[in-house]
Amino acid sequence: MKKSTEKTTGNSGLKRREFIKNSAMAAGTFMIVPRFVLGGSGYVSPSDKLNIACIGAGGKGWSDISNAYNNGGDNVVAICDIDRNMAKRAIEKWPAAKYYNDFRKMLEGDEKIDAVTISSPDHTHAVAAMAAMQLGIH
User: Which end of the chain is more exposed for a tag (fewer CB within 10 A), N or C?
Assistant: First the structure.
């Protein structure tokens, strides 16, 4: 039995130049498409960020809202403290956040709040938590 040395050429319809062109275009797509579409590491799309509000912004409140912000880069949209001096540091750090001195007005305000940190005294904590939960705020 003899081995054939002839090369067989099939007519697949795809030529080498077309294959190279199509491959280059497909590879180039990953350079053009924004990384959040492809799920780039370390990137959080704006729709995946929480809109956070804080009730009580001094002392423990400062710690709570700062940790919530630093861990997820979420949006701080509202700051509430009965004493504006206690909230001063938070107001300076997040100037776009709206300031309130009454948590009830804040929860019913026009901001879209997804979550709230509650760092008020023990005897007022439950009232604020229930008000937030009744509005569907975590």
Answer: N
Strands of 37-109, DSSP E: 51-55, 75-80, 98-100
Would you kindly state where each structural domain of the chain is located, as residue ranges? 14-43, 46-134
Instruction: Give CATH for domain 46-134.
Output: 3.40.50.720
User: Do 54 and 79 meet the contact criterion of CB atoms below 8 Å apart?
Assistant: yes
Q: State how far Cα 48 lies from the chain centre.
A: 4
Compute the distance between CA of residue 45 and CA of residue 18 in angstroms, rounded to an integer: 36
Query: Is the pLDDT at 97 greater than 70, yes or no?
Result: yes
pTM for the full predicted model: 0.64
Please enumerate, as own/partner, the contacts of 65-74 that have beta carbons within 8 Å and a separation of 24 or more. Answer: 65/90, 65/117, 65/119, 66/93, 68/115, 68/117, 69/94, 72/44, 73/44, 73/49, 74/49, 74/50, 74/115
Question: What are the φ/ψ torsions at residue 105 (nearest 5 degrees)?
Answer: -70, -35
Cβ pair 125, 118 in contact under 8 A: yes
Distances (CA, A) of 116 to 14, 19, 48, 129: 59, 54, 16, 9
